[in-house]
Amino acid sequence: MIRYKKLGYVALGVTDLERSITYYRDLVGLQLNLQEEGVAYFSCSDDHHNLVLYQNDVAGLKRIAWEMESDAELDNAADTFKKHGLDVYELPTEESKGIFQGRTLRFIEPNDGICFELYNQQYKRATSYQPTVSKIARLGHVVVSFSDWDASIKFFREVMNFDTSDSIDGFINFMRCFPNPYHHTLGVSNAKLRGDRPGLHHVNFMVTDMDDIGRALNRMPENNIPIVFGPGRHPPSGSIFYYFLDPDGMTVEYSFGMEEFPEENPRKPRSLEPRPDSGDYWGSVPKEDWAQAGDILPAKPQLIGQLL
Ligand SMILES: CC(C)c1ccc(C(=O)O)c(O)c1O
Ligand SMILES: [Fe+2]
């Protein structure tokens, strides 16, 4: 059983880094911890980074990273993945230090070629995240549209030891990274419902107060940010949500509240009927550009570390 601590960070490619830095810092409310040539590290915790933006020709998903419970779990994960025939790479120490992390492994997820990363720890910051426009509680989840929905769910369940909390049948499977309690840190969405285009669906930040959602209801439209779904309440996790677009058209979600699962004797996963009110109790309807932008950005295995 592989044991994860949490979803650690997501790395996105953006087409105008300065524009996106302004957006994620001043409107979403993340703290810019470091900007280097072509890359910006943001945090919403005492971690060095929970979102990393890279200047890129095309906007999209570059990497999703999970923090492991311990160093031993990193080795356990590497052994498990290798047994399943995956190539697992470890970043040389200088490189993992260069991204402010301890031991860092990477592999290419086999269905759509997403770069996944596991690490044992990140550098902590002496002064933690200082909230500004919004009190972000954590990076909540990433949802990705996969080309083979069933095969992807099977991979995350059987190889990565993720558990399904709920699904909306044929549309999205909500998975938690065992034994992390949150209802989902990864949403496996079905690319068939997106014109057979795998890619980023959305990135979620959980906020601390209902007021953080309330303030965004004013702040985002006042700054001409496209609102693409909500406000509403999701039946699966019970969270109150609000979705808006980033400067490249990628979808960002704020949510407040989420069901938590015990490690032992969790409730059974539910399968919800694929109908609009399974996505929102309150009756809002997603706009056409909701969850449309964001390619899967290919990673070259030889550039992601040394083969274990
Ligand atoms: C409609 C989208 C995919 C959705 C549905 C439910 C939840 C939840 O229960 O938290 C989400 O976070 C979603 O993004
Ligand atoms: Fe979500």
From TrEMBL:
It comes from the Bacteria. Residues 264-278 have a biased composition (Basic and acidic residues). Pfam families: Glyoxalase. Gene3D superfamilies: 2,3-Dihydroxybiphenyl 1,2-Dioxygenase, domain 1. Residues 261-285 are annotated as: Disordered. The keyword Metal-binding applies. One of its GO terms (molecular function) is metal ion binding. GO terms for biological process: L-methylmalonyl-CoA metabolic process. This is 2,3-dihydroxy-p-cumate-3,4-dioxygenase. It comes from Cycloclasticus pugetii.
